[in-house]
Amino acid sequence: MNDNEHVNSRQYLSFILAGEEYASDILKVQEIRDWTSSTFVPNSPQYIEGILNLRGNIIPIINLRTRFNLPNDEKLVNRIVIVLTIETGGRNRSMGLLVDAVAETYDVDMDKVRSAPTGSSVIDDEFITGLTTLDNKMVILLDVDELLSSGELGLAAV
Predict the structure, then answer these.
(1) What end-to-end distance do the CA atoms of the chain give, in Å?
(2) Ramachandran category for residue 122: left, alpha or beta (phi over 0 → left; psi -120 to 50 → alpha)
(3) How far apart are CA 133 and CA 112, in angstroms?
(4) Where is 4: in which H helix or E strand?
(5) What is the pTM of this model?
(6) For the chain, what is the largest distance between any 2 Cα atoms, rounded to a whole number of angstroms?
C-alpha cells in the first residue's frame, strides 16, 4: 500500500450490538473497559445506564441497546464500555458506550462509504455517517458526536 492509498481512509473501531456491527472513528476512542456496575442517576433517560468515576472524571454511560430500542440480552455477561471523547458545544467531554463486544479495527476507504437509506434503520439517520462493506460484512459508521450530544441526553452536561 502506498501513501496515496491512505489519503482518503480513516481508521474505525467496530463493535457488536444485537448481532450487527457498528463502528466509530478510532480517534474518538479513549479506552475500552470491561463493564462494571455504575451509579444510577434518578430521573435520567432510560438509556443512561448510570455514571462512572473514571480517574476523577464523572462520565455518563449510555446503554446503546436501549438507546437504539433493541431488546436486552440477559445472556450477555461480558459487556464492554467504550469510552469516547465527543465534541459538543465547543468543548470535549468523555462518555461511555455500553456495547455487547468490541470487534475489529478497520481502515475504511471513505470513497466506498455509502449513505444510509432514509428511514431504514432503528437509528436516526442523523447519527449515521454511512454504511460500508468490510470483510464481506455491512458495517454502520456512527457519528458519535451527534449521537452523544443529542438534545435528548440531559446528562450530557454531567
Answers:
(1) 44
(2) alpha
(3) 8
(4) helix 3-6
(5) 0.85
(6) 53
Q: CA gyration radius for the chain?
A: 16
- 119-138: b or e for each residue (b if 16 or more CB lie within 10 Å)? eeeebeeebbbbbbebeeee
- Which residues is 41 bridged to in the sheet? none
pLDDT single digits (tens) 48-95: 999 999 999 999 999 999 998 898 887 777 899 999 999 877 888 899
**Residues contacting residue 10 through CB under 8 Å, at least 6 positions apart:** 25, 26, 27, 107, 108, 110
Residue 90's φ and ψ, nearest 5 degrees, are: 80, 10
CB contact set of 116 (below 8 Å; sequence gap of 6+) = 125, 128, 130, 131, 140
Q: What does the pLDDT look like over 18-29, one tens digit per residue?
A: 999 999 999 999
